[in-house]
Amino acid sequence: MTQPAQPTPPTSPGMTVPAPSRHPLTPLLLGLIVLSAIPALILATQRVSYEQRSKTTALVMDYPAVVTQARRFGRDPQELLAHYQSLGINGVAIYEDVIGNLAQRGELYLKSGADLRAETGDAAISPRNFYLRSLKPGVAESLPARYTIPTRTVQAGGQSWVEWPTDPTFLPVGPDEALVETLKARGFMLVYRPYADDAVREPGADWPDVPFVIFNGEEVIGARTPELLAKINERLGQRVPALIEATPQRGLDTLVATHGGARTFSVNPAWQQRLDPITLASKYNLAARERSMRLLYVRPYPTVNETDDLLRRTTELLGKSGVKVTQPVIEPFRENTLLRTLSLIGPVAALALLGLSFPLVRLGLLAAAASGVLAIVMNKFNPYAGAALIAAVTFPALGLVLRRARVSDWFVATGLSLTGVLFVSALGATKDSVLGLEPFRGVGLTLLLPLLLVAASFLPRQDLRKTIQDVYNAPIKLGDILIMVLAAGVFALVFLRRGNATGAGVSDAEAKIRQDLQDTLVRPRFKEMAGHPLGIVGLSGVLPGYFGALLILGGVVGQSSILNTFSHFHTPLLISAQRCFLGLGIGLIAGLVVVQLVKAALHLWHTYGKAPAEVRA
Q1: Which stretches are transmembrane (predicted)?
Q2: Which residue from 207, 137, 211 is spatially nearest to 172, judged by alpha carbons?
Q3: What is the dihedral of CA 285, 290, 296, 299, to 10 degrees?
Q4: What is the pTM of this model?
Q5: What is the pLDDT of residues 523-566, one digit of tens each?
Q6: Do residues 611 and 553 lie in contact, with contact meaning Cβ atoms separated by under 8 Å?
Q7: Considering 427, 458, 502, 551, which has the largest number of Cβ atoms within 10 A of its Cβ?
């Protein structure tokens, strides 16, 4: 293969990296990227329209928790719930009744066999069994038909009892219809929480008419039996199942495929006790605004005053964020296959252009091919998801491989990264990914691969064997070792703290800064605010030797973070855009300021203690 002609102008004098190649196919490939970006832009516009229509959420209060709190303070549960309704609560989560609830409400009498035998002295009563008797006519007699558990009717103490071979206290019996009607009449949106029990003959047959269902535990009812799961799927009807954040439930994907899903944010009660109401309110606001949570599941604090503070602050923040508290209408995100297919061209053209722009073209093509294969394999040969990952690892590197001679090249690199955003969104945003069911595969690669690709493009235009020999024979100073260790440590920290679930902690001070930022505006990512200034300083050429190249690699992290930001498809596109442009603006200003500070510092270093005549010389 012949080397491409017309190399770019040499880089700044202080730089030690070779200039990239300018391949004859560059204009054609850039043109393909631009043309393919048009359908990607249309898809992005459609996604924004969908997300704007979905900018609603419901504040759902856990009803049993309200009852417990009300009884502790001697208040009527309905009165306390009405108070919370005035502070913003518009939904109530009610659980399916169990037989024990019927006994508590005085509808039936539940006794252990030992107690009943002690009272009646009847030898026919087994101490190991349990016995039910109706206080409300027909209640106890109607229950056996609901279950597969064998029962019989016995006489004891002049009364008719239903004998159960096992404790029936926690067997589900369907909804409390009176409570359902009362809460509906008070204007609450209801969320139903059914229990799973293998003894129930027809689960889901008597669910109330409510818009949402939240399943308990780690699986939905029927998850272990395909035939039963199919029945539950049918019996859901118009009800929408909830997806609880960070709580995967087996079988839920089957129901969501038919009915869609309502993303739900709930805080573990033990964790809630460690958070003050203002901090928790911030998390609810963040969940609705930036993670598309349609149901905010609220449990009261131990005191009414704390709960009041939580609700007031939450509704205030939601109002500032433009999120309307109402009954959400769940509309599935629809993909456009034709436009997505046309968008495939852009990432492929960008990957080819990246490989052809390496000073060592063969190495570049090999690196590009390996990156493409890795992206496809990681996404189980799904062409759209694979191309989305290709875009996420290619575009952050492409700009700094094509041009890296001056500060203005940072704008070229940023423009290409933002173009890559369109392809990531167009190819990766699906019905499942916007619900958080299908996470972006290869998040770690979006930070690592662009860095490796740009670093590989720094290899000089010569035989690789000679480069390896030169590196091996190069004298290494203690300062070089310290710089390399520091750079590796910084990158390790950045890599560990990628995504939402990180392997490195956040300090209390940083957590406070994050909360203050997210309560007032969309918080920019710290990787971008640090990475962009590093890239600008590196491109300025003010630092000698390999320092500039090292800082350019820091700038790659900032560019990669742009694509990484948009790979969270459950986050609205406009929110990601706000976060991105805030980071770009802050990073640009900081970078330009730091360039001047570095120049001033270097000038002081070289002139300190010298006479003016020596400095001029």
Answers
A1: 25-45, 348-378, 384-403, 410-428, 440-458, 478-496, 534-558, 579-598
A2: 207
A3: -50
A4: 0.86
A5: 677 778 888 988 898 898 887 777 888 888 888 999 999 999 99
A6: no
A7: 427
